[in-house]
Amino acid sequence: MGNGNRLRQWVMAYSFITPALIITLGVVAYPILNIVMESFKTEDGYGFDHYVYLFTNPIALDNLFYTLYIVIVTVVVAVLAGYGLALFLRFSNSFASKTIGLLYLIPRFIPGLVAVNAMITVIRDSGLINRVSLALFGYDFKPGLMFNEYGIIMMNLWFNIPFATMLILAGLSNIPDSMIESARDVGASRWVLFTKLILPLTMKDSMIAATFIFMTNVGSFTTPYLMGATSPQMIGVSLFVQFNNLNYGYVAALSVVMFLLCAVSAAVYIYTNMRDKAWEKQE
Amino acid sequence: MSIRKAFLLLVAGLLFAGTVLAACGNRSGSGGEGGKKKTVTLWAQGSDNVRVMFEKQIENFNKTNKEGYQVKLEFIVTGTGAQSLPDRITAAKKAGQKNTDFDIIEMQGDEVLRYIEAAGEDLFIPIDRSKIPNYSKVKFPATFRDDLVVPYRGTTVTLAYNSETVPNPPKTTEELYQWIKDHPGRFAYNTPGSGGAGGSFVLTSVYNFLPEEAMTSSDPKWKEQWTQGFDLMRELHPYMYKSGGRVVYPNKNQGAIDLLAGKEVDMIPAWADMIISQVRQGAIPSSIKLTQIQPSFTGNTVVLGIPSIGSNPEGAYAFINYMLSPEAQNLALDEMAAIPVIDFAELDPNLTSIISDLKIDKFRVISIGTLQPELYSKWDEEIGTLK
Asked: What's the pLDDT at B4?
């Protein structure tokens, strides 16, 4: 009893965590520190040269803003579309909604490269759409969706709308039917139901979806590499190109910036979460 | 109770220790156990068709060789920072490691020079041709350091064009540049960093203005003379393939080939073996043909070398000898339209007809060391960013 037991429990607890901690430190923390150190290495010693270049060179800035533009559009459209689809799947009992409910997760199971190549075959200027229009209407319609942001955003949405739908649907399913029915019983209109009941309860899941979609798309490579323009290019492609040009310091700095962008999005998520808690407390 | 707990803790500890040791023990370059003398590890890199070809060669060799050697392939795909292989070997040599599993290294053109620069003249065993009976059949010398490496295939970039829309392809670079201007949007080349075909176009555009000696020099002084080539590429930029109103340089050798196959462009620089194999597979239309211009695009021999820090030089010699046999040369020709290095008379005539269009007497070699990534970097900054 007493102190001996407590000490033993403490030792046991920490001895279980230690292996995992060591592995995490070795595999995650050490390489991150390494990259941060590398990003400060310049031709003569250490300095902020790479970061200055990243934020003042017009082309590097162009790429950064281009990436943010594509990712933000992806996040907004994916979450909005996902929300709409989730609402439809949750509250509609039609045959259509049941079928879609079975099918909508399929894009998640298709390997990324396969999906990108399939999309390219359809939308490229010599692809399926062009050939069908030539065959049916005799008109050489070039969609002009390749090698620019439109194709990339389309591809991103193909991957991310099912994901957003899945997360938001989970949140919506947590709202019991009884709650909805009782609100309707006291005369709440559909709009009030949505804004005052459903939306606040699913805000957290929407924010999770937005954060995840932001973080996974900031560094995306396959889609912009195969479907994007040479310039401006997304920073994931930039990273790859500069790495092959042996500019390791610049690549390290770019990686750190990507990491910080994701950290900002995570911070936004945490802030919104904490605000939610305050609201819940007041009720 | 406490005995059970102690036992569980012990098992957990052993499992943990076992996983850690297993992870550490799997590193390549660590010593091997008995039976390893028959294993030969081949390190190679390139596009996927090279990998497939090697796998078939290795399967064949492992089955038929009398000494019972087993070759294993370690393959690195192009564009995945292949610098790591020279770095690893150099590190192993500098650390004084012996008997590593770097038994045979495949190298393109002038890579052997960079290996030696980094790891020392004694990195490779001087080739003892008496151990390679098939060497007598070899027609092309290795383009660099013939004493240290053995060529097993040749490769070259050529001009690929759609014979239906281009009845008379250009024969010189001047004609090519004029053709590009006369047919805006019908020519494309891939970004130099993502594939050697576009890389060759960029390199020759710059180095065609320089004296021949510059093509094998890594002296930084030649950088000052790059401006003419870059001005030429800037001048040609508006006439390149466009999509959605903007000029596009596709990524990867295959990106440009896809444009040609889809008839979005009529002419591209391309690796001869990629075009020939894909036409044979039916992946691209047979109207796609090859031609060479003067001065030609670059090419080189691809060679095999035996590092002195390897553990099986005898096995390495056996495999290299096999690669020079008519059987292996036919297989490489069939599998990836690789240009054979032995006398064509020894080969299957059905197969040599595949490359009969290519008149190869010698390869136009370029070897500029670290100037190459610098040139590509400059292209990325100055040409890749043009609107």
From this structure: 85
